[in-house]
Amino acid sequence: MRTKIRVLSAVTAIPLALSACGPSGEVAAADGTKSIGFISQAPRNDGGFTQFGLAGVNAAIEADKNLKLSSIVDNAANSQEQIQGLESLAAKNQIVVADGASFNKSVAVVAPKYPKVRFILVAADLDAYAENVTSVSAAVGYNAIVVGAVASAHSRTKKLGMIAGLQVPASGAWYYGMAQGAALENPNTKVVQTYTGDYNDVGKAKQAAEAMIASGVDSILSDLDSGSGGVYQAVGGSASPADVYDVFALHCDSSPHIIGSGVVSWSDILKNAVADAAADKLPAGAISYGLGTGALRFEFCPGKGTAEEKALVERITKDITDGKIVADKGVLLPKPAYHFEQR
């Protein structure tokens, strides 16, 4: 169960001599330090999307002595909590990272009030251009195409499933990409999808996975955070053999049934974005990271994947980066009408 929003300082004190907040939200530091605020819709230690994103912010800080993480707000589940959290962070930081697709509306409300603050919106775009907002996303649909092809080749029943938390475009991209990749490998492979309403609810994820397995699905892509534990439980307790494919990172030790992962290095993406923002080199608009950046890739767990399946990964990945495979509708997030950069 999610708890109420809370703001925790990452340092015990911020001396007044070092920082001062103006009415616009601009933070001036006498020693040149730039402070960062981080807000997420999930717990900071969710074992997935949020935890990896926060790790990227910390990596940028470790590489630059003039950066510091001043505050973290997590479990900001609804719009009121998100707006309050963003305003709290913007009032005392120069860079604010809004980690999650559900923040696009709240960032649009808060950012104009703090024109001197650079907002980094993760995994979603704004409806309209804002001079102090940069949205960063991963073209996860490309990764999903590779996952779908591998899962189809490995499947015995030729029926695959995708389980996610919220029915947002970023999660939908995993489904549509998986369906496209499966069809490339075998036009007769079917892909179904289920949304539990929560990326961290283990019980709901287990129920969804059990229902899929009962319907004949033998390969499940888990677009979940800690909720993936429910998928592992369902597969591990099933009399019918089933496999799991993760997203974001490899969790091979979590279940012997995990074949591999459509790795999305949010750590690398956030490290890059924060470093550019600190150097005033991050352009306003939208940036999407693809397979060519190395931030996205498919990886097998040790000992998993046949030689043919590994060759399939290389071929599909190359065909995507070379432009031979064009994403179907829904595989990629819609490009915004303003400045957009595909990396």
From TrEMBL:
The keyword Ligase does not apply. The keyword Membrane applies. Residues 1-20 form the signal peptide. It is found in: Cell membrane. SUPFAM superfamilies: Periplasmic binding protein-like I. PROSITE patterns: PROKAR_LIPOPROTEIN. GO terms for cellular component: plasma membrane. Keywords: Cell membrane, Lipoprotein, Membrane, Signal. It is a lipid-anchor. Residues 34-322 form the ABC transporter substrate-binding protein PnrA-like domain. Belongs to the BMP lipoprotein family. This is Basic membrane protein A. It comes from Micromonospora olivasterospora.
